[in-house]
Amino acid sequence: MPRPTSTRRTSQLLNHIALVTGASRGIGLAIARALSAERCNLILTASNATALRKVSRELASAKIKILAHPCDLRDPHSVDDLFRAIRREFKRLDILVNNAGIAHANLTVDKLPLPLWQDVIDTNLTGTFLITQAALPLMKRGSTIVNNLSIAAHRVFTGSAAYIASKHGALGLTNTLREELRPKGIRVIALMPGATDTKIWNTFWPQAPRKKMMSPATIAAAVVSAIRLPPNATVETLEILPTVGLL
Ligand SMILES: NC(=O)c1ccc[n+]([C@@H]2O[C@H](COP(=O)([O-])OP(=O)(O)OC[C@H]3O[C@@H](n4cnc5c(N)ncnc54)[C@H](OP(=O)(O)O)[C@@H]3O)[C@@H](O)[C@H]2O)c1
């Protein structure tokens, strides 16, 4: 007699260990939620400790282990402190999602203050470098790195020079890292979302048409399906746009 088919599937990511930066809201929070549904153990980070505690409470479950540790990824000491905590709790990392990022007020290059330029480059580009460099010794064959870039990694939008430069730079970092890690069997995915409905838009276009945007959960679903591919296959560039295209 045929056995009844079960609707429950075993997650391929069961017991994996994932670090998500910028996990307190927006796309990072959606990715953390989607990974927790796959029964991944999670390390969640962002700079705001209170927001992080709230997310950790939301995702807490007997089925997964969560470490929520605040970190300002612009600061090498803060990144060291995060990785000390990670090494204490977990012996390895299977998934790294470099997601944290900031935008800036719409200002043409002639009006862009140096501190703002530096803040955006330090967060989006150097922060990704610092976290990745600290994570690599914990990552083995079969692991995956997802760098949340943006379509701004290969297109330009006037008034966003620091953001565009940081994302173009992060694409260069991502592409180089992929070739360095290919022989080690570690996959590197360049995630390039278009407009997604998060708080980041308040910085440079508060009146942007939110209804035309994708939801963070849509991006998270695409990321998780890319990570769930067998280790001998990879999505190198994951570009996702609203059906209407650019806003
Ligand atoms: N929304 C879009 O349309 C879109 C499209 C393409 C790509 N992206 C990219 O997606 C990523 C996430 O953005 P989002 O739209 O989800 O924005 P968001 O809602 O503003 O979330 C940004 C996250 O980054 C964290 N973060 C910012 N600065 C940090 C720092 N110095 N140290 C540690 N964490 C920091 C924030 O937490 P704290 O404030 O607590 O630090 C927050 O968790 C960014 O890299 C962004 O460029 C967004």
In short:
By secondary structure, the protein is of the alpha/beta class. 39% of the residues lie in helices and 16% in strands. It contains seven helices and seven strands, in the order E-H-E-H-E-H-E-H-E-H-E-H-H-E.
Overview of this protein structure:
The chain has 247 residues and is of the alpha/beta class. It has a single domain, classed as 3-Layer(aba) Sandwich (Rossmann fold), CATH 3.40.50. It has helices at residues 26-37, 49-59, 76-89, 114-135, 161-181, 201-204, 216-227; strands at 17-21, 41-45, 66-68, 93-98, 139-148, 187-193, 237-240. The protein has a 7-stranded parallel sheet, with helices on both faces. α2 (49-59) links the parallel β2 (41-45) and β3 (66-68). The mean pLDDT is 96. Bound molecules: NADP nicotinamide-adenine-dinucleotide phosphate (NAP). NADP nicotinamide-adenine-dinucleotide phosphate binds next to α1.
Relevant terms:
247 residues, alpha/beta, Rossmann fold, 7 strands, binds NADP nicotinamide-adenine-dinucleotide phosphate
Number of helices: 7
Average pLDDT works out at 96
Structural class, from helix and strand content?
alpha/beta
The total of beta strands comes to 7
- Percent in helix: 25-40%
Give the low-confidence spans: none
* Each distinct ligand: NADP nicotinamide-adenine-dinucleotide phosphate
Number of domains: 1
CATH superfamily: NAD(P)-binding Rossmann-like Domain
Shape: globular
CATH T-level fold name: Rossmann fold
Gap from first CA to last CA: 56 Å
Provide the gyration radius in Å.
18 Å
Portion in strands:
15-25%
Order of helical and strand elements:
EHEHEHEHEHEHHE
CATH class: Alpha Beta
Arrangement of strands in the largest sheet: 3-2-1-4-5-6-7
Main beta sheet, described?
A: 7 strands, parallel
* Annotated CATH architecture: 3-Layer(aba) Sandwich
